[in-house]
């Protein structure tokens, strides 16, 4: 027993991480301040821009976009849902949450999809990324809030940061998965016709893995939305802020309304993003095809008359 | 005649660190010995051949004999481990990546066994693919692709999507995509292997006619002996990565170089090792003893058949019923067809091929294959037999012999 009795010093794991983040704050604050100001500016601009439009008009514009990307019924329900949010007085909060989610998702995709592509090119990177992705997905998202606040202070930007970290893994994984599932003979065909690696990627791998990549986008959006409430803990505001406030005050009415608003937004974003690249033909693609067809007919008319 | 493609002592060993394996090969070790020693696979074992301009050169062998590997060495989709492969006098193993891409894009085109048609593109955009890679402007791409589609008889289909096309049509698209590149050399990797027998014969005919006009240098991989004899100006028979014999069809048939070739030509000996259970197929529909007349009729309609086998508990074969027998029952609104079940012609699962033929000839309809406990395993019709023979001919079935 004596053998087990010696004092094993505790590994300074947490201290090391804290030291590292503090070091970042102390030495690279210029960069982080720049990022914060930039993101603050962009999100502020988007939010103020959308809030400057009359809600009714904006709801109709959203309805039109939903219709183009999905179907009449979804658009109609979307308009009703958005109208409800406006009616219960959560419109400004919805807009700021929407901006938070959309900006976070766009940044997550800009980072995530290329990483997924690079992982298909290097098995070493793939092996290195796998545990990192597992870590990112299983670490309780609250934990991200701490370094986010240390690096960016309080407000919407640390919320963005935490949301991005949380939402990146699905697009990375599903991009990787989609590309590795492209049939070998399709790639071989492209190479046999003289394609270089970039052409194989652009003309074969990406188009054929689009459904999988879009599933990643969809998952990314869903995770982003689920992070909204958590991000409100560090002052990201929006609908999440309302949820937080209702919890603090035990205000069931407000809690239900703001929660419902998040649900409505989530459903709309899910339906829209799920439909893209799923092989279904929403009105937008039908319109594009119609225009293409008209142009083709015109060309053929010209050719036959000439 | 000029030599278009020439292989000198071409060796391909799959895997990393091929040095030791290559040494063993040079010392005369066989493929299986090398595999045992190093764990690496010898794909091509010292191939030598010449392909002359304008001829169809057929590579034939069982699966795993290295014919597809050899084909892929020609356009450097696979790099040789040692030896040399010259295309129009230039050694591919010495080319830079850029030169190789030009070789593939401009001098060699390829047709694939499973078509490799991109499902997200229209037919004409599929045909344009190679030109797109090469950077041909859109107008010209369109024009040339249309012409190529006319050549293969698919002009009408240019704006269709691939999933609207049958297998034979897809391979025409694959052919058009290769022809439109205007390359001198055409590599065809079992191009008709995935098509059914009728379409295959038709495509072979068309290829022969087309070749009269375009006079390409074609390297054609197949495992179908008939196809090889029909198309090949020169035929190379491969085994375990090595070429056993090269010659015209007549030369090879008249004077097989060795016993293996002789067996290969005559010994489509599938009949020895295939038994009834391995060629049988599960029928589209079956009916249980306890089910009703109307269910049986519905199934017949679904399977487009005028009879159904009837199974009892534990897959035991009871017999079969015909439409003519149960239609009157249906009119009389009777539920059970138990009285009209006929005795089925059965055959034990381990019956060898050559005993199946006579049994099949005597059978009223399909033969039911049963095991020793009279359990139903599948059916054999004349069609299944022909299909199986066709698939197995030169296929995996006799590799072990």
Supply the number of helical segments of chain A.
15
Poorly predicted runs of 5 or more residues of chain B: 268-273, 393-401
Contiguous helical run count of chain B:
18
Structural class of chain A: mainly alpha
Biggest sheet of chain B: strands, sense, closure? Answer: 6 strands, mixed
Mean pLDDT of chain B: 85
Residue share in β-strands of chain A: under 5%
Described by strand count, sense and barrel closure, the largest sheet of chain A is: none
Question: Which sequence of SSEs, written as H and E, runs from N to C of chain A?
Answer: HHHHHHHHHHHHHHH
CATH superfamily of the largest domain in chain B: P-loop containing nucleotide triphosphate hydrolases
**What would you give as the CATH superfamily of chain A?**
MetI-like
Arithmetic mean pLDDT of chain A: 90
Please give the domain count of chain B. Answer: 2
Task: Using the coordinates above, name the CATH class of the largest domain in chain B.
Answer: Alpha Beta
Helix content of chain B: 40-55%
Low-confidence stretches of chain A: none
CATH-defined fold name of the largest domain in chain B: Rossmann fold
Spatial ordering of strands, largest sheet of chain B: 6-7-8-3-9-10
Question: How would you sum up this structure in a few lines?
Answer:
The complex is a heterodimer of chains A (306) and B (401). Chain A is mainly α and 306 residues long.
């Amino acid at each position: 027993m004596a053998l087990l009795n010696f004092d094993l010093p505790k590994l300074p794991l947490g201290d090391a991480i804290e030291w590292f983040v503090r070091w970042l704050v102390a030495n690279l604050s210029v960069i982080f301040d720049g990022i914060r100001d930039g993101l603050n500016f962009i999100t502020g601009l988007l939010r103020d821009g959308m809030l400057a439009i009359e809600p009714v008009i904006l709801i109709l514009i959203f309805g039109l976009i939903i219709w183009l990307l999905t179907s009449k019924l979804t658009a109609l329900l979307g308009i009703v849902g958005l109208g409800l949010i406006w009616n219960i007085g959560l419109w400004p909060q919805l807009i700021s949450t929407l901006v938070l989610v959309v900006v976070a998702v766009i940044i997550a995709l800009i980072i995530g999809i290329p990483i997924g592509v690079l992982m298909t090119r290097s098995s070493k990177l793939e092996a290195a990324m796998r545990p990192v992705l597992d870590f990112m997905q299983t670490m309780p998202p609250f934990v991200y809030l701490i370094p986010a606040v240390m690096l960016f202070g309080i407000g919407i930007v640390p919320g963005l940061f935490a949301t991005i970290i949380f939402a990146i893994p699905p697009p990375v994984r599903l991009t990787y998965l989609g590309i590795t599932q492209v049939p070998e003979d399709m790639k071989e065909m492209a190479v046999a016709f003289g394609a270089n690696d970039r052409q194989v990627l652009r003309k074969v791998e990406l188009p054929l893995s689009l459904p999988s990549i879009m599933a990643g986008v969809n998952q990314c959006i869903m995770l982003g939305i689920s992070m909204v409430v958590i991000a409100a803990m560090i002052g990201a505001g929006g609908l999440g802020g309302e949820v937080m406030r209702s919890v603090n005050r035990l205000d069931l009415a407000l809690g239900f309304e703001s929660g419902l608003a998040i649900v409505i937004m989530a459903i709309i974003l899910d339906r829209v993003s799920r439909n893209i690249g799923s092989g279904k033909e929403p009105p937008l693609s039908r319109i594009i095809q119609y225009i293409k067809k008209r142009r083709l007919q015109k060309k053929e008319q010209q050719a036959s008359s000439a | 005649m000029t030599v278009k493609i020439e292989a000198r002592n071409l060796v391909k060993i799959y895997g990393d660190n091929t040095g030791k394996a290559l040494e063993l090969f040079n010392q005369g070790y066989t493929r299986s010995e090398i595999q045992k020693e190093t764990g690496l696979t010898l794909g091509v074992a010292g191939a030598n051949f010449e392909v002359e301009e304008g001829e169809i050169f057929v590579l034939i062998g069982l699966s795993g004999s290295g014919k597809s590997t050899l084909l892929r060495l020609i356009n450097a989709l696979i790099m040789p481990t040692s030896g040399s492969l010259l295309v129009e006098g230039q050694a591919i193993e010495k080319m830079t990546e850029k030169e190789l891409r030009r070789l593939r894009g401009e001098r060699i085109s390829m047709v694939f066994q499973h078509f490799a048609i991109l499902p997200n593109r229209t037919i004409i955009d599929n045909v344009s693919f190679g030109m797109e890679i090469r950077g041909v402007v859109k107008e010209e791409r369109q024009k040339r692709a249309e012409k190529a589609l006319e050549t293969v008889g698919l002009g009408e289909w240019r704006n269709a999507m691939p999933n609207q096309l049958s297998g034979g049509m897809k391979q025409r698209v694959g052919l058009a995509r290769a022809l439109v590149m205007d390359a001198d050399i055409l590599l065809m990797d079992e191009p008709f292997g995935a098509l059914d027998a009728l379409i295959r014969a038709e495509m072979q005919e068309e290829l022969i006619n087309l070749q009269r006009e375009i006079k390409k240098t074609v390297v054609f991989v197949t495992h179908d002996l008939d196809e090889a004899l029909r198309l090949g100006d020169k035929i190379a028979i491969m085994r375990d990565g090595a070429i056993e014999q090269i010659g015209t069809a007549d030369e090879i048939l008249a004077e097989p170089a060795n016993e293996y070739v002789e067996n290969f030509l005559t010994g489509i000996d599938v009949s020895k090792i295939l038994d009834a259970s391995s060629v049988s197929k599960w029928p589209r529909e079956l009916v249980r003893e306890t089910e009703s007349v109307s269910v049986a009729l519905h199934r017949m309609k679904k399977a487009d058949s005028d009879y159904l086998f009837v199974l009892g508990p534990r897959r035991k074969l009871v017999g079969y019923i015909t439409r003519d027998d149960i239609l009157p029952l249906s009119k009389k609104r009777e539920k059970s067809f138990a009285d009209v079940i006929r005795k089925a012609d059965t055959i034990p699962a381990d019956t060898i091929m050559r005993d199946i033929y006579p049994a099949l000839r005597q059978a009223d309809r399909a033969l039911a294959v049963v095991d020793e406990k009279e359990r139903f395993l599948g059916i054999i019709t004349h069609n299944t037999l022909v299909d199986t023979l066709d698939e197995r001919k030169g296929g995996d079935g006799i590799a072990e012999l």
